[in-house]
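## Example record

The block below lists the input lines for one assembly entry, exactly as stored, with component labels intact.
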Amino acid sequence: MKKQQNILIIGAGLCGSLLALRLGQRGYNVAVYEMRPDLRKTDISAGRSINLAFSDRGNKAMKLVGLEAQVNALCIPMNGRMIHDKEGHTFLSNYSGRDQEYINSISRGGLNALLLDEAEKHANVTIHFNKKCKSVDFEKTTAFFQDYTTKEEFIEDADCIIATDGAGSALRKSYYLGKKFLFSFSQNYLTHGYKELSILPTETGDYKAYKNALHIWPRGDFMVIALPNLDGSFTVTLFLSYDEGAYNFNNLTTPEMVTEFFEKEFPDALALMPNLVADFFENPTAPLGTVKCSPWHYKGNTLLMGDSAHAIVPFYGQGMNASFEDVVEFDAVLDQQLEDWEATFTAYEKTRKKDTDAIADLAIDNFHEMKAHTANPIFQEKRKLEMAFEKAFPKDYSSKYSLVTFNEHIGYREAMLRGRAQDKAILNMLADHEIDTTHLDDKTHLKALLDKVKTATNNILDDDNVAKTIG
Amino acid sequence: MKKQQNILIIGAGLCGSLLALRLGQRGYNVAVYEMRPDLRKTDISAGRSINLAFSDRGNKAMKLVGLEAQVNALCIPMNGRMIHDKEGHTFLSNYSGRDQEYINSISRGGLNALLLDEAEKHANVTIHFNKKCKSVDFEKTTAFFQDYTTKEEFIEDADCIIATDGAGSALRKSYYLGKKFLFSFSQNYLTHGYKELSILPTETGDYKAYKNALHIWPRGDFMVIALPNLDGSFTVTLFLSYDEGAYNFNNLTTPEMVTEFFEKEFPDALALMPNLVADFFENPTAPLGTVKCSPWHYKGNTLLMGDSAHAIVPFYGQGMNASFEDVVEFDAVLDQQLEDWEATFTAYEKTRKKDTDAIADLAIDNFHEMKAHTANPIFQEKRKLEMAFEKAFPKDYSSKYSLVTFNEHIGYREAMLRGRAQDKAILNMLADHEIDTTHLDDKTHLKALLDKVKTATNNILDDDNVAKTIG
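Predicted structure tokens for the full assembly:
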């Protein structure tokens, strides 16, 4: 392919700005159109910036574009989950038994601004704000835009168009409504929605709760979580059913009911949130949806990437990381120098889709794990055992969480299959009292348990494989 | 609820005409609007009528409306799969070890005509043909129609609207495009499409192949099947990839290539099909899609039923049976006399959706089973063992196929979970040489094998359950 091809990117969010930067580094002519104003010039109130979990797969992309150190400066390490019970007791459950493995809380806005700054340093990259894409003519490789300010409508063409315009993608909508090819598509909503709240810093700017953890208040059918921000605040999120249970988004309609709900279920969180009622009624309630589709591309003309191709629920902290990994995978396909864009897009989807399908399913698993299983004694015993394995035999074992989050050299699908099999093996052995977890400091005993888990895991994988290939 | 409520049904296909009949029997005022002309008055060429598999779940509905004997007269029993290999060797694999368990080939048109006749015998049921539903205002409970002949447009209202308008449902489209509530929705296409062909009767009107079987030519990545019609013909269907493999729908563009493909892969079928090339180029190639969605209803105003709620691929022969079972399940909810339509629709979806989700997944499983696994020696050994179990211990064992097809007292979901676990248990024991199938006529030995399979099955179900509820 000729290097000086013109690439149009729709959307300058995290995925689009990273893609623009990388394609700019590779020498393409890149034009990015973003519907929102430039977030670097818009007043975003401090302390309420939305934060995200940033981990190894995302960092792999930062290494690729040479921004690892700059991004690291924006990160707050979270070493584990801080579980809060109803009585306010807390319990730290590490994400890994290896000290160097942790996830980070990072500001979406700060990271996006950095990526935009870096992309714009390339003369061959231009970014246009306030330009909303209304539709894409994927047969003509043109996109139809409207300027937010002037309302002027215009059409842009390119050698190829890549849509990184998120869960509500205009290109995906054009694929669906166009009916020009068989387009498999799903949008699936959880019964729960979410609402953002906040724990503000102390008057001296300190954190009101332990800084280096992802806080969880698991209550079975619903939960609250909190992630730290650099300014001393925490962004808090309530995940709750719209219409089921004693308290739900539909019936929490008065300040008294909201306060009563938090007094009963989250008293220690409420004590940190004098601003609860104001936050609750000011902030919107948003749905939690998963989007999958296929094909992602139309010939060599257009391609979906990031959330536009695979929006997922937030419970594995992998949404941004998966989108960043998209760019790494796409970059690796570009390295193959295939004959044209169609071959490139086809190869990219073939290698990538199985993994984004897997992280979508894993994220839903983790919804149930976080709100319910983290409070289950057998689940906690499993985590204790896994932490011991990872600590004593760091090269021989990785939990499902570690495989997904810290093993960026394997894909999500492989992590899912092996991780689920391990969980199944350990949980069943614990439920059947086939594992004695009382002497995990005895390394010989622990090694025997590890061998037992590995054997059971491999049997599960083998049995599943036989059933799948013959059954 | 008042009995004299007005119910509007969109679509007079198999599900809509059965629903109209049943609701007519229950005393409701029923108005049915169908976009096609009256199939009883339209000339349908004999010998090419599309046939379907009719089995116990569908028959349960016929019993409910008192039509069991009349439908039975339209049926051709198929006792098993007749497997054809490339050399033309055939092998009959029964559907069950119990003689009274078989499926039937039935004409779609004949059955639909019967249901329309019976529905129209009720003075409180009216059926309007050539009226195409364009959209539904589910907040106002009105449907918007266009007359095919006069092009006149009109609106009808009712106390509630039930859409039985198939995979391309106008009501479902209105739910999706309306964006008035969170609508989970998926449409997923297989990589394969299908094309109908035919084996015509002999000059004396006889069947050119064994009448009482579903014929399969499994070739791994593609297949041909044939079902008998009452007039001595077979309706033949080719399932083939659109674009993968040496031969596919995209590259079979000349009579020579089509003939070459059949000569190479299906020589014994070709010998029965002098009309192959004409059929191939006259008949359309159609996609194979699965549709799932939720919720099925909007308040008490509107409800999706049959394919409009859950279109499935044809490989389990359960599409019509599932839609008929919808009517049985809906009828049972009506018997509960809940307070209003909203409570009725909510209860119906809650009990029914898990089962239609399951048959959708089972139907895709069976695509792979039919085109590939039926030719696998271990799979064939499993079937041999299961036939022996069902014959020797008819009350103690049912294969997955039997659970799905002949055990209409349990739901599809239960059939799927138990059936998949059994398959996994048996296939793994066969693959690991833990089962000796050489002396299946020894009843003591066979009973020991059955116990072994049951224990392994229960272990699988228990392990899955632990992993699901804690993991």
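The interface with chain A takes residues 182-189, 242, 287, 289, 292, 365, 369, 373, 376, 378-379, 420, 423-424, 427-428, 431, 462-464, 466-467, 470-471 of chain B (CB under 8 Å). The radius of gyration of chain B is 23 Å.
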